[in-house]
Amino acid sequence: MEYQKVLPMLLKDITDNLLINMIFFMILAVVLTFFNQRIQIWMWLREAESALKRLHFLVIKAKKITVDTVKEIGKPNFDPSPLIDDFLDFFYIEPVSLDPSGVLRRLEHLLNVRDRRIESFARRIAPNADPISLSNIEGLLEATIVLNYLYREIRHLLLLGKKTKSVIFIMQLQMFLPLIMRYAEAFFGAVEAFSSGKPIGDGVGALVAAKLMHGKPWKEIAEKIIASEFDFKGRKVIVIKAKGPGAEIGKPGEAIARIVAEHGGNISRIIMIDAAAKLEGEKTGRVAEGVGAAIGDPGPEKYKIEEIAVKYNIPLDAIGIKLSLEEAITVMRKELVEAAEKAVEKVLNIILERVNEGETVIIAGIGNTIGIGQ
């Protein structure tokens, strides 16, 4: 019968296919056993190369934005591109901390030198820029410097990983890459914000102060810091912030110490408002209250505030407005503008609840004032 002839042929085909599949999977198992690590390294390196290309694109575009902004605002009679390219490698070295004596004083000195160096360079490449635009160019340069550093660092790690073929080294690069790319995209957003003079998320504390002092007289009391003094339901209120609308931070610690000294320490309390880093899952613009010096400072300004508060036993109230790193250095979102209104209400409530009539309170709005006036 026909099926008696066909059945052996089918069985032979099935057996042959099974043998082929078994051989294939055995070869695959051997390849994966001996070459799995190399395949994984190759995949990680490919991801890093892709990220590096994106970083290179961001750096090139950021440089172009910087050069175009300088040419448009500063109107130099020369091409600033070579000077800007050289300046993007600018760095500063932190003071030695092995001997802690005077470390904050040394740190402040180096930060002052650094700031003056960036300011003088901005004035050199943009000689016709007004003071506000000049401050924005300084911020633009700093954001581009950070972006350029991230690119050079990733390039260094990638090339080193290729040379060493170290699994641990390449794995660490791949693990941190998503976070580094988030930072890179954020700093590119900062470049766009500084080039256009728009407010950034970090300025939300200064925005609160600006709302409180809006329409009231003010004067400059410290380096790039202004103060407005007015009466609120029998309480004397002194509001300080960096002088806007240029990209300024100023020296709020120096300003607060000076005000307290002028009043002989007769200050009821100090209320500080600043942007605060949120945790993943927290809502942007949430207003939180605590105690302490609310200022994202390397150390010197915060130290001055804490020192003067301890000297005269002045309570320090802190109000933090939650946001992510990306939101801090990119154009201010609607949620943060709304949060500033809530923070104003909270500040006024604190004054009514904790400051008696006839007493004086200092309110410090901390943050970059780009795009935020008085």
Automatic annotation (TrEMBL):
What protein is this chain from?
A: DUF1512 domain-containing protein
Keywords (alphabetical) are:
Membrane, Transmembrane, Transmembrane helix
InterPro entries (alphabetical): DUF1512 (IPR009995), DUF1512_C (IPR056461), DUF1512_N (IPR056460)
Segments crossing the lipid bilayer: 18-36
Locate the DUF1512 domain: which residues?
20-195, 200-372
Please name the source species.
Thermoproteota archaeon
KW Membrane (keyword) present = yes
Record keyword Membrane present: yes
